[in-house]
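Team,

Forwarding the record for the chain on the shared tracking sheet. I've put the sequence and predicted structure together so nobody has to dig through attachments.
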Amino acid sequence: MGAGRTELARAIFGADPIDTGEILLEGKPIKITSPVQAINAGIGYLSEDRKKDGVALDLDVESNVILASVMDYSNKMGIVKRKDCIEETNKQVKNLKVKTPTISQKVKFLSGGNQQKVIIGKWLCKDSKILIFDEPTRGIDVGAKFEIYQLMNKLVAEGSAIIMISSELPEILGMSDRILVMHEGEITGELDIKEASQEKIMYHATGGKKQGGEKVAN
């Protein structure tokens, strides 16, 4: 935490300005200056603070799932097609195994894990192919964590790309294919999962220092 991971993710999503650098999507440069542009490019962002930035707690499950796609479910007059919304929401609830008595249930009454699933459903409803998960299992119980891990693996198997930000080393080592480590706003290391270890991650996360504080030459 504090290395600039969330700031980098927000910049990719267009929520924060980019000072330098460029974004490549499928090998081609793309300019993203707002979340709307990111969403239209197929990028979804699950924020670190889901209650503040991820879900509308006082709205129901249906409204939250359709939130990013409301224009896709509206006619030329701007009238929302409720039948289509209900059908899509029920599909996401079923596929993601969201535990809710009804899609009319307010999201604030769901558990943390199910709130997270609703957010994922929002981006799948929009057909997002690149998903940024910022601390996806923070504040949820062990059982819900396992379900989120299963869901992430399923999404990847179906062709989605996931950028996961996490402070938990076991989670990083257990879920990642490739690991980028940041320190003071810069990427200081890139590791393939086959060569990654807690020691190597911590080495890069501390700016190239061993645990005793000794600087190590490259």
